[in-house]
Design brief:
Strand content: 5-15%
Low-confidence stretches: 250-257
Order of helices and strands: HHHHEHEHHEHEEHEEHEHHH
Radius of gyration: 27 Å
Largest sheet: 5 strands, mixed
Helix content: 40-55%
Number of strands: 8
Length: 338
Amino acid sequence: NDKFYLLPRWLVFMRGIVDSEDLPLNVGREILQKSKMLGVIQRRLVRKSLDAFSDLQKNATEYDEFWKNFGKYIKVGAVEEQGDVQKDLAKLCRFYSTKSGDDQTTFSEYIERMPQNATKILYLSGDSREQALNSPVIQRLIKTDYEVLLLPEALDEIVCQAIGEVDGKKLVDASKDDLKDVFDDDDEDEDNGDFEELCSWLKLQLEDRVSSVKLSKRLVDAPAALTEGAFGMSPTMRKYMAAQAVAQEDEFAGFGGAGKPTLELNAKSSIVVALNNGDLTSDEAEDAAELLFDVAALTGGYELSDATAFATKVTKLMGQTEIPPKKEAEPVEAEVVE
């Protein structure tokens, strides 16, 4: 109850009666609260709860219902606990993935499907499962059939960061890691040409918004994408932290905030190739650079700093689009029925 802390807060939904002959009830509540026996009871209650959840997990239907109602509590426990308790809670956690469809998967199921010799459990956060699934930063991972966990909630990302490792496999943000050990460099045997000048020019054009510009090995169809450094903050976490700062009226909100992302270019994209071969001193090249960044930001889940300017550039492009005139309907001869 609210008098004695027999359960951690992530088990607040549990109800029951504890029968003990070892509690000194003839003393004040303050003294009882410090009793070593109370700590023993708490640890046993946590262990009993975890065992009950593990047994429940064997029945998929019952566990689905349990997870819908109490999954967030389990995730909070995985963040707050440590040691063996955290490991057991990690086994109970479920997430969407690029291979799970509308269902969710556990870390154990993910590891069973991992490629041989793979050492990383990759995840990607987003405003929704669909947005994370369509993110350009995992295009090549999907193409090479490497599974990625999709995290539509900020809590999911916090859980993965807190757990850190499962059965010797590190949990890694797919938008932060360079993925050198995931991609086979031998597959990239085509000459990408010299894009050094373009990267330097884009860095100058977008100096206040990106930390660096480089060629990417993770992109397939998208011309560009924004990624974070090892200690960077994902778009989902940026929004979460900003919301927390506003809610708490944080006087340091925005002070020394998240670092600038990296702009990665797809050297095989016709847009990037055209920009690389074009006149970089022209106004058209500057507009293309701005649009390239804005599109990469939107598809990556970032918020545009100037939505009006983006709309103006898109409207300008639409005005340059040639739309064919309407086709005149061919006359139809009436059929005479005798």
